[in-house]
Amino acid sequence: MLTWNLPNDPCQIPLGKMKTAKTIYDSMAGTIPSSLLDYTQMQTATMNRIEFAVYHYQVLNVAYGFATVTTYTQQDSVARAEMNAIILNLMGAFDCISHEINTILNLQINEREVMFGHNHKQGMSNCIICRISTTDPQLSTLMELVITSDWFKELKEYRNHIHKRLPVIQVSMVAGGSFRKVTLPDDPSNYNPQSPDFSKKLELQAYCRDRIDNVMVTIEELYQKLHPQITQYVTTRRTASP
Ligand SMILES: [Zn+2]
Known about the structure:
By secondary structure, the protein is mainly α. About 60% of the residues lie in helices and about 5% in strands.
């Protein structure tokens, strides 16, 4: 049985690149009036999603350190488990911030129907992007840019497949080295990938690190855009019910 140390508290991971997000989070410290509780929990959830992704990335790094033949099977299982947790948490951050936008901008979309993907023609009432396209075109454009970016489309594709079947990873020894490479298939819907189907060389550790970076930067940008509206929302509720 292999014993290994887990990384730190997953809810206390510093997110250095997310200064505005942290400022917003800190602004809700102290006594929370009941009218602000809902929003506070949503914003914490968005932050937690990213913290959890980083936490699982740290676990993934620990697994990359398993370098004996007896621990290889465990390494593969841990890599697989962590990949799934990282991808689901990163995409989850967008679901969480969508709930924040719904609340802050008072869009009144039913909580169970809030949507971020916008994978449809214009005019869907439960889609955040459609709903703000006329009232807040700047924010809507920013979100359009996110969802049409290659990295987002790819990440979403992996997430969608995780809901059905897990992507088949390829594990190979690094020639002359003592560690193994874990690679994602180019096409997540390919359930019988052969060697040429890993040509994009989506090495798991690097892939997860880069996607965490993308999501941190993007969520921070969304918070920068939303900051004045959030401040107004929070201040109003604090003043109304101290
Ligand atoms: Zn839409």
